[in-house]
């Protein structure tokens, strides 16, 4: 019976890691792209997109810009901008911007986040996002969402 529960749990987790309400999650950062879109434990400026809690472990303020030309089409581009202000006492404040598409179809996301580390092993973060989808013949729609993130580092270089 325990093996069946384990199998069902694994299937449940695998399914929901691939289920997206509006499409595939955007790739943000060259390192994430080169590592097969793995990103939840990477600690860099693009953590503001991938796992907001990781920004608490940044050493200093950082800015990152990522641009991608998808499908070798000149009019389908993705642009990402991430800015994280690191303060040793207050935590890390982040601002993100994402744009994908062209004049007939485009997606925009703007986010603001905060992360704080609690000692040297754990951090948590919260990010609010504004999303906008625009299709030329159908109009546009906007919504607000949020991300919660946690990072635990039990030993050095393992998190």
SSE blueprint and pairings:
Elements: H1 2-18, H2 30-34, H3 47-50, E1 62-69, E2 77-87, E3 91-101, E4 105-118, E5 122-135, E6 139-152
Short descriptors:
159 residues; alpha+beta; 3 helices; 45% strand; globular
Structure notes:
With 159 residues, this protein is α+β, with helices and mostly antiparallel strands. Strands 1-2-3-4-5-6 form a 6-stranded antiparallel sheet, with no helix packed on it. It contains 3 helices and 6 strands, in the order αααββββββ.
Q: Tell me, briefly, the overall form.
A: globular
Beta-strand content estimate: over 45%
Count of DSSP H/I helices: 3
How are the strands ordered across the major sheet? 1-2-3-4-5-6
How many strand units?
6
N-to-C series of helices and strands? HHHEEEEEE
Provide the structure class.
alpha+beta
User: What average pLDDT do the residues reach?
Assistant: 85
Report on the biggest sheet.
6 strands, antiparallel
Distance, first to last CA: 31 Å
Helix content: 10-25%
**Can you tell me the residue ranges where pLDDT is under 50 for at least 5 consecutive residues?**
none
Q: What radius of gyration results from the CA coordinates?
A: 18 Å
């Amino acid at each position: 019976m325990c093996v069946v529960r384990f199998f069902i749990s694994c299937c449940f987790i695998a399914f929901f890691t691939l289920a997206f309400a509006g499409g595939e999650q955007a790739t943000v950062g060259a390192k994430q792209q080169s590592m097969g879109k793995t990103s939840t434990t990477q600690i860099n400026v693009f953590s503001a997109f991938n796992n907001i809690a990781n920004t608490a472990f940044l050493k200093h303020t950082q800015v990152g810009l990522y641009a991608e030309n998808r499908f070798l089409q000149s009019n389908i581009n993705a642009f990402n901008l991430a800015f994280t202000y690191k303060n040793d006492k207050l935590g890390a404040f982040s601002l993100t911007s994402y744009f994908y598409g062209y004049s007939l179809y485009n997606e925009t996301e703007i986010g603001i986040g905060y992360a704080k580390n609690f000692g040297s092993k754990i951090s948590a973060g919260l990010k609010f996002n504004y999303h906008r989808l625009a299709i030329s013949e159908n109009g546009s729609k906007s919504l607000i969402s949020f991300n919660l993130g946690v990072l635990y580092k039990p030993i050095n270089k393992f998190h």
